[in-house]
Write a structure and sequence with these properties.
This protein has 345 residues and is an alpha/beta fold. It contains 15 helices and eleven strands. The protein has one domain: Rossmann fold, CATH 3.40.50. The radius of gyration is 19 Å and the shape is globular. It starts with 13 loop residues before the first helix and ends in a 14-residue tail after the last helix. It holds the Pfam family Abhydrolase_6.
Amino acid sequence: MAARPATANFSTTAAATANAFRQKFNIARHDIAATFPSFRLACNVYSRKDIPSPSLQNSEAEGTSPALVFAHANGFCKEMWEPVIARVDRRWTEREIYAYDCYNEGDSAVLNKDLLENRCNWLTYAQDVLALVDHFKLTKPVGIGHRIIAETLRPGTFGAIVAVDPTMYPKEVNLLVPVEDHPMASLTIRRRDQWKDRDEARESFLKKSLFRAWHPEALDLYLQFGLLDNLDKDGRPGVTLKCPKIQEAMAFAHEGTGLHDAFENLPQLNIPVHFLFGATSDINPSDLVEMKLQRTKYATHEIVKGGHLFPFEEPLDTARDITKFLERYTEAKGPSVDTPTKARL
């Protein structure tokens, strides 16, 4: 897709973006235990301001309007889903919505900064999703993001999954390589991670085509919630990445730890899985898309305009596709693990 210009389209400030979203939603911050007890997970729980009693609404909606659990992409943060959440049809946002930061990214990385090691296991990411589901006592929520393996670890946890350009590969694809040999990891290690302020960070980001393709709200949210105020090496105030770049790089370099399992275990999924693939994604070429669909019993899919990070580029299209799937899913009356109904999805 054509890159957006780096001027007028990005005039919205981070504060204005956040305020517009918060006119509709209350956002409660929770810090909960991760899989490893020494780690914490930062979670946002979103509830509509125009519903007097969200807990009562949740109870009344049980079985018709599933809870939604959002998992973010590597290197980013939970707030990046807000432009999509804001555009999902109202019917599906009347229950509380959950989004969390992986233990080594976003606000969770800040909570765990003194405990993080330079290694990563994608199985831990999946187990942390289960920790969130248990903490909030959710019953068959719809998982949205990249954590398919959580359902294979504990079948019956989710009612359905929306897999957003999921990163998983056949075991024949060797992904577990040293950081310096992995193309994405080596690029991440070399990326800039210190700026004097968010305005300078914005200018720096917009020099890259990746960020110029993003919707203005996504960039503003990354600037506001993906960066952390700090002091530079000379003691001057500045901003840095909340997710340390070594942690992002380790996730790329250790992709084989869990992502092979996710692909190999796709046939075990007995719930609807709706795949959203980016039309120009370099993560999911057409042959791999077909392999994933063929291995998944109750699979549906859509191709969304944009690349691997299409939710940042096209939040409206992403929200529309999620809404359409949720409508079909509810019409099918939430097929259980025992009675999936692929034909109606």
